[in-house]
Amino acid sequence: MLEGILIRGIGSFYTAVTADGEEYLLRCKKKFRHLGQTPMVGDRVRFTPGTGEEEGWVEELLPRRSFFVRPPVANVETLLIVLCPTPEPDFLLADRLLVECRRQGIRSLLVSAKTDLGEDLPERLRREYARAEAPVYPVSTVTGEGLQALREAMGQDLCCLAGQSGVGKSTLLGALTGLNLETGEISRRIARGKNTTRRAELLLAGGLRVFDTAGFSLLALSGVTEPEKLREDYPEFLPYEGTCRFQPCLHDREPGCAVTRAVAEGELNPERIARYRQLLAEVRETWKGRYD
Ligand SMILES: Nc1nc2c(ncn2[C@@H]2O[C@H](COP(=O)(O)OP(=O)(O)OP(=O)(O)O)[C@@H](O)[C@H]2O)c(=O)[nH]1
Ligand SMILES: [Mg+2]
Ligand SMILES: [Zn+2]
């Protein structure tokens, strides 16, 4: 039996690649469906290779270290959260993705794309996320700025790009890997709509290991969370934990809250904290309705 990573799945066929770079076409045994397991791109599997014309079989799914549902990808180690000047950056989406990464132990990088359209965004991201353990990488596929630095930061991790439609994920992926991928521009020309990237695939190219996925649609935080837990996903709160007047303090509107004071004194970024409170309200609603 061999071990590999699933890099592609089309219908009931999967492609696995082994450590030495060999690709194998595989099918999935029915037992997985009975077990309620669906192999995802990025899954580490044990398999029996095929013989000549015959495809091989996925025998076992190894435990996942992390996974996303939409897009369905497993074992992401580094998430590149892409924002750009146009379309208008969705900071709340970035915050949600950061929370998700913290929960799953995924490293996160903020990619400030399309710097050729304006230089303000990297600075704003650095300001808002200074204490969020998310370094900012300014890049432009037009000028080539920052591509090499980003490649180095990605290293050999299984990486995934996330962000709104149109922020330039596919274009960036093409520039990073040297592959010619479908982008919004091409799809408009052939009039097939703007959302071009449809199924997930793991690309091994340009010395990188990176998923090509359809637009990330993380509209709500996954799973039901206790409101008390959300603050644990904000590294900037750590120095203040235990110092608020009331315990536990959710750093919302409680009197004597050390986080509120830190914002007033310019230690914490007001926008980032305001969005935390917005997410907290959402988490509270979901928590209240958890038995519905
Ligand atoms: N000015 C500028 N435009 C860019 C840059 N990178 C990408 N674009 C343009 O942004 C548009 C969207 O790019 P895509 O790569 O298709 O965006 P995407 O994030 O993959 O979008 P979805 O697949 O819909 O999620 C295209 O028209 C690109 O040409 C850049 O660095 N600078
Ligand atoms: Mg795309
Ligand atoms: Zn507090």
Task: Give the full name of the CATH homologous superfamily of the largest domain.
Answer: P-loop containing nucleotide triphosphate hydrolases
Principal-axes shape call: globular
Number of helices: 9
Give the SSE order as H and E letters: EEEHEEEEEHEHEHEHHEEHHH
The radius of gyration over CA amounts to 21 Å
Number of structural units classed as domains: 3
* Average pLDDT metric: 90
Q: Structural class per helix/strand content? A: alpha/beta
Largest sheet: 6 strands, mixed
Listed once per kind, the bound small molecules are: guanosine-5'-triphosphate, magnesium ion, zinc ion
Strand adjacency order, main sheet? 10-9-8-11-13-12
CATH fold topology of the largest domain: Rossmann fold
Task: Write a concise synopsis of the structure shown.
The protein is α/β, with parallel strands linked by helices and 292 residues long.
What does this structure look like?
With 292 residues, the chain is α/β, with parallel strands linked by helices. It folds into 3 domains: 2-61, Nucleic acid-binding proteins (OB fold (Dihydrolipoamide Acetyltransferase, E2P)), CATH 2.40.50.140; 67-212, 3-Layer(aba) Sandwich (Rossmann fold); 227-288, Probable gtpase engc, domain 3 (Ribonucleotide Reductase Protein R1, domain 1, Orthogonal Bundle), CATH 1.10.40.50. It contains 9 helices and 13 strands. Helix 2 (91-104) crosses helix 9 (270-288). The protein is globular, with a radius of gyration of 21 Å. The model is unreliable at 186-197 (pLDDT under 50). Residues 244, 249, 251, 254, 257-259 line the site of zinc ion.
